[in-house]
Amino acid sequence: MSARASTPPGRLIWDLPVRIFHWALVLAVLGSWITHKLDAFAWHVWFGYSVLVLTSTRIVWGFVGPRHARFASFVRSPASITRHVRSLFGADTADRYPGHNPLGALMVLTFLALLTLQAGAGLFANDDIANTGPLYGYVSDATSDTLARVHKLFAKLLWFAVWTHVAAVFAYLLVRRVNLIGPMLTGRKTDPWLTPADEIAGSQLWRAVLIAAGCAAILYCVIVTAPEPSLILF
Predict the structure, then answer these.
(1) Where are the strands (E) in the chain, listed by range?
(2) Do residues 51 and 115 lie in contact, with contact meaning Cβ atoms separated by under 8 Å?
């Protein structure tokens, strides 16, 4: 079999850590929601930890990962976002981007901000019954109550962002005939206009694993050294 025949179709755009982050975060958010509905607080906390480790790893990866994973390659100005939106309703072919387009980039930043703030607030929050976040001991009861409200508010905003994202993905598929799901599974895009210069050389998985381990270790140290709550809720 020739080398050409054994090579997967398309060009490698999304590295493996980005793809793992994406789908692991889907599972972590879904797990957080399910455990909240089931009042399984201990599991809910663990899913929150997972969200924080994933988002912090992705933020670091946005500076040291392969080209299309880096913020510098996809964060664009409001003018660029507006121009891209207009192109979607104008010419037959919208603006072309090997990695995230401006709307996709905006969604990435939105998710990272919402998830980090929502999960971070949960560390200090309480449920007005008997459960408190692992960092509850650092704040007053009033501050914890405020952060609990922030936690709930950002949960609602997060679900709005999730459904907006899902709707956009299917709109691209049905209207523009652009499949955004497949490349996030395989890492490869098959657009004919992509060139060898658009392709990344590899995933650098070992580096992502070290970053994730470091983020998890930092979170662990913060949690185990936190003071005991001054008040137990009943």
Answers:
(1) 11-12, 188-189
(2) yes
Angle CA(27)–CA(30)–CA(32) in degrees, nearest 5? 105
**Token pair recorded at residue 53:** 């480790």
- Tell me the pLDDT tens digit for each residue of 161-178: 999 999 999 988 888 888
- pLDDT tens-place string over residues 190-232: 988 899 999 999 899 999 999 999 999 999 999 999 998 655 4
102 and 84 in contact (C-beta within 8 Å)?
yes
DSSP 133: -
For 181-201, the DSSP string reads HHHHHHSEE--TT--GGGS-S
User: How far apart are alpha carbons 217 and 29 in whole angstroms?
Assistant: 21
This model's pTM is above 0.85: yes
Rounded alpha-carbon distances, angstroms, from residue 140 to 39, 57, 205, 221, 232: 24, 30, 41, 21, 12
Residue 96 CA to chain centroid, in angstroms? 23
Q: Is 177 left (phi over 0), alpha (psi -120 to 50) or beta?
A: left
Closest by CA to 152, choosing from 23, 44, 46, 55, is 44
Q: Alpha-carbon distance 109 to 107, whole Å?
A: 5
How far is CA 40 from each of CA 46, 133, 154, rounded to the nearest angstrom? 10, 13, 20
- C-alpha distances in Å from residue 137, one per residue of 50, 133, 153, 158, 229: 21, 9, 22, 27, 4
